[in-house]
Amino acid sequence: MHAAWPNPYQSCWNITRPDQCGEGAIPRRGCGSVMNVRHQCGATVCVTIRDCGPRTRSWCGELACCNGECRSNRIFDMTPAAFAAIGNLNAGKAPVWIYE
User: Which residue intervals define the domain RlpA-like protein double-psi beta-barrel in the entry (predicted)?
Assistant: First the structure.
């Protein structure tokens, strides 16, 4: 299972700019780093960072909700296989918690 992270290296950070959406505390985690992603409503999947992305500043304030609780800002992209492990692909996005 793979994902894209907005801060694997400085040139990626310069493109994604999650700090412009209030997400400035995103740690640098290089390609090959492993993270756990938990859907706010339950399932968890382990992913390996393989790419830079998404361009967070393009979606500042965008909401994803589950059971009336919402998270904002798109800071993480997952492959279809990784996303399908925690949610419905047709939803396109999900509120998640990311941790190591």
Answer: 33-96
